[in-house]
Amino acid sequence: MQKIEATRVSAPQNRRLVLLAYECLCTFEFGTAVEAFGRADELTGEPLYELSVASVEEGSFGAQGGVRLVVDGGLELLEGAGTIVIPGWRSIHEPAPDRLIAALQNAHRNGTRIVSICAGSFVLGAAGLLNGKRATAHWNSTDVLAQRFPEVQVEHGMIYVDEGSIITSAGGAAGVDLCLHLIRRDYGIEVANRTARRMVTPPLREGNQAQLIQQPVPRYQTRTLAPLLDDLRSHLNTPLVIEQLATQAGMSRRTFLRRFHDATGTTPGEWMLGVRLEKACALLENGSLSIDRVAEQAGFGSPETLRHHFRQRLGTTPTKWRKTFLERSLKERGARMPA
Hints:
By secondary structure, the protein is an alpha/beta fold. Helices cover 42% and strands 12% of the residues. The protein has helices at 27-37, 98-109, 120-126, 142-148, 174-187, 189-199, 226-234, 242-249, 253-264, 268-285, 291-297, 303-314, 318-332; strands spanning 16-21, 50-55, 61-63, 67-69, 83-87, 113-117, 134-135, 153-154, 160-162, 166-169.
């Protein structure tokens, strides 16, 4: 068996990530963050972050689902953290304690990146850390967020909003997207993709994707399209011919398109475009291939087509994407770009 050499990834300058816990803890959001940030990269075997859990309350405390927790320490753990994650909050109508507000304000002044999932945005709003910034929360509470904090530009439909040192997300599965976005920002798309594969979730949903997808749950178990999707990922240069794909899946054209949309939430063409962009981003971040070669290997055919879709979908160019990723990587390692 051929041995696979693990590519060592470059970590952020401050890998200390503190996950906040509190009475009546939102266990889904908390578990999402633990799964994303608390496990080692499966290729290198190295942890991505130095994870610890800080509790607002002292001693043991209750969480949703009838469990009780005892964690690493209290709010003193927030001092010197590179990243603080607030996984929800017990109620949008219950104010955060003054000591938590003060700890978050102090951490932000000292350059700590602060991330919130779902109702955690209300804690950041109460701390004044969202003033003059864009932010989001669960779709059923964004109106309350906007009314309570008028200085915040609330994005009612987005699944997450990255404002640099402050990142907020909507509820539920949007927390997974935020976690993967953070890993992609810190380590690049390949590490984020490996994390997504381990978590069995799509690797890339852009932050401006709508929170509400009008897609009913299928009433019956349908034939899986997973083998076909894997095959398409392996043949990015193969033209999409719907009739051939339907035949390969053993379906009529109409049934195939319906089942494809049920499985992916989009059309074959849009899905393949996303996969090709994902591949192009990985090539740009992790190599020195020319733009022509990136376009070819990612299935775009020509650099012009690659540039067109980067402008349309990502609002930038392939060259700027590579340069931005390199500059950010060097900055986070404490290095400086050469003159």
